[in-house]
Amino acid sequence: MPRVLSALLAVGFAFAVIASPGTADAKSKPKPADPFVPGIDVSYHQGSIDWSRVAASGKRFSYVRASAGTLTSDPAYGTNLAGARAAGLATGAYHYGNPDSAPNDAANEASWFLQNAAVASGDLVPVLDLEVSNGLDASALTTWAQTWLANVTAATGVKPLIYTNRNFWSTSMANTDWFAQNGYRVWIANWTTASQPALPAGNWGGQGWTFWQHSSTGVVAGISGNVDLDRFNGTSLPASLFVP
Predict the structure, then answer these.
(1) Whose C-alpha in 50, 53, 132, 154 is 20 to 30 A from the C-alpha of 183?
(2) Which one is catalytic: 123, 129, 228, 230?
(3) Distance from C-alpha of 99 to C-alpha of 141, rounded to nearest angstrom
(4) pLDDT tens across 146-174, in order?
(5) Catalytic: 131?
(6) The whole model's pTM is what?
C-alpha cells in the first residue's frame, strides 16, 4: 500500500505542475479592448447632471446643445459644459438646425451658434444637428447646410460634424455624398441593437461613421431619466476630432 500511495501522489503532483501554467495563462490573458469609446449627448432636457458620476460610469465624451435656430439658446449649456470639462470628459457643442427660406437664414443660424457656443482649443469639433427640412427641397437644404458649415469652419478653423439619420438624409437631402466627399464626417442616429448602424450616402461616401447615437433611452449614473448614448468608432479619440 505505501508504494501505491506514493505512486498516486507522484502522478497527482505531476498533473498539478502541468495544469498550473495553463490556469495562470487563462487568468492573466488581457481583456480585448473595447472597439468603441462611449459617450453621451445632452441638453436642458436632462436637468441637473452629476458629471463626476457620469465620468465614473465610464463615459469619455459628451456633446452639449448650445443653440437651436436663431432664437433659442440652451439654458443648461454653460453649466453642462463646465461640469463635463471639470469631470474630465472630452466635450463639444452642437447646434440644432432649424432651416427656412428667409434670406441669410443659414448664415444667421451659424452666427447664433457661434455667439452661444464657447468653442475653444481642446474641445471636440462642433456639430450641426440636421434632421428637419421645414419644407425646403433637397437642393435648397443642401445649400443651407453648406453655408452653415462653411461659416462655422471659417470661424473655428475646423470642419464640423453632421448629425443626421439615414431616412432624413436619403429623402430630404437626396442621399447626397457631397459632404462626405468634402471632408464632413457623420454622427449617425440609428437606435438599434445591431453591431453597426445603417448609413446613408453610400456608407457616407465609403468612409463609414464617426459617431453613432445608438440609443435615446440610455440610463447613466448621475442623470435622472433617459439620455442619448453615443459611441466613437475607434478605441481612442484622435487629435483630428479636437479644435487645435
Answers:
(1) 132
(2) 129
(3) 8
(4) 999 999 999 999 999 999 999 999 999 99
(5) yes
(6) 0.87
